[in-house]
Amino acid sequence: MNPEASYRFSHAVARKPGKSVTQGIRDGAGPDPSPDAFLREHQAYVEALRATGAEVTVLDALEDFPDSVFVEDPALCVAGAAIILRPGAATRFGERDPMREALATIFDQVIDLPEGGYVDGGDILVTGREILIGLSARTDEAGVAQLEKITAGLGVPLRIVQTPPEILHFKTGCGLLDAETIFATAPLVRSGCFDGYRVIECPAGEEPAANLIRVNDQVFLAKGFPRTAELLRSQGYTVTELSVAEAAKLDGGLSCMSLRFTPGASS
Ligand code: CIR
Hints:
Number of helices: 6
Order of helices and strands: EHEEEHEEEHEEEHEEEHEHE
Structural class: alpha/beta
Mean pLDDT: 97
Largest sheet: 3 strands, mixed
CATH class: Alpha Beta
Low-confidence stretches: none
CATH architecture: 5-stranded Propeller
Strand order of the largest sheet: 2-1-15
Helix content: 10-25%
Bound molecules: citrulline
Radius of gyration: 17 Å
Number of domains: 1
CATH superfamily: L-arginine/glycine Amidinotransferase, Chain A
């Protein structure tokens, strides 16, 4: 693998939130997000992605799919190919068809995850040396077995880990800072799944900050986590803080709202 391909991207894809975002899935009975406020947050997110130098495609809202703003879950773009996943939530399964259509205009190689299981993109962390995938309520062993066949063909090693049961997705609790450095919550650090990497632990009490993303020279961090911002800046990272208050009402965050990739780049 080219280690830098894990955080240097020429392109990104996002999808506008629709009015139906109020119907999005959430754990518990929290408040609905405001569609207008969500749209404003999304616009700021897209602008920040563009400011990193990436070419960003913003797809139209899909009112039939309230969670479709979280484009990370129905696809994985890696090693120059797009893989259409099989989201594990029934109301999200249909997001794969419009995502396939969109990615087919960008990628020469679009591969469907075969039937037999489920995988959400939120459970996948691509590092500079491998794909880490967390088994969760959305991602099962059968889905991972199918994915492994595809990623092996692309020349990218895949390692299975466990998403802690208290979080939705593996990346709810971690994010990549550079090819060799992972930012993660204490339970994930303690699990040992990042042994061999340089790890920066999320300050206690700021756990939602763990869903950060590195895009080219920037680290995007959720707004409202001052100790994390200071820690990362002290380690030399260039940090841009973005509000994800509306996405958070649906258990979403920074990684979920874009697919980031370089089309045609091999592993
Ligand atoms: C869901 O439950 O599927 C959405 N409400 C949130 C998805 C967040 N996606 C992500 O963490 N990759």
